[in-house]
Amino acid sequence: MNHSTRLVRLIEIAIMTGAAVILDIVSGMFLRMPQGGSVSIMMIPIFLISFRWGVKAGLTTGFLTGIVQIAIGNLFLQHPVQLFLDYIAAFAVLGFSGLFASGVRESALNKKRGALTMYVIGGVFIGSVLRYAAHVVSGAVFFGSYAPKGTPVWIYSSVYNATYMIPSFILSAIVLILLFMTAPRLLEAKRTN
């Protein structure tokens, strides 16, 4: 990859990191869960970068999104390990959706709507499940005291985090499918020779 292609990729990563943080802040204004988390479309910019440039760019964008959220204080802090799990790891793992990048790009550019839908859902699902897993572990370990008496902490954490992660997964998948069906050129990463 030459210098100008790397520069384009870095600029896009920076822009999508900013977009993800802004979308999370705006979403949090309307529905913020008591111990953190919200139904949000903030994952869309991270998934978009992952589908355009692949896993490495997606991991970088997610990682930077977590760092920026920490820097601006948009967080719910209990412990340094919880901070890592809920912000650094949870957003970075969204980049693994890039494993589906070639399938998403190829099916969008060839107007194969069924294949596009399946690849996008697969990629968004993988990223969302990994993020959900990070939040569930964090919730069970660091927020277990919030579980109602008699409720196992792992069940409480699983249900609590599912209440916002499932809608966020569905919203992200729908928006990305519609976006790529109407504007497949968004997936054409500018790779200069």
UniProtKB/TrEMBL annotation:
Organism per entry: Bacillus velezensis (strain DSM 23117 / BGSC 10A6 / LMG 26770 / FZB42) (Bacillus amyloliquefaciens subsp. plantarum)
One Pfam short name: Thia_YuaJ
Name of the coding gene: thiT
KW Transmembrane helix (keyword) present: yes
UniProt keyword terms in alphabetical order: Membrane, Transmembrane, Transmembrane helix
Residues passing through the membrane, by range: 7-31, 37-55, 62-81, 87-104, 116-144, 164-187
UniProt name for this protein: Energy-coupled thiamine transporter ThiT
GO molecular function: thiamine transmembrane transporter activity
A single Gene Ontology CC term: plasma membrane
Listed InterPro entries: Thia_Transptr_ThiT
Origin: domain of life: Bacteria
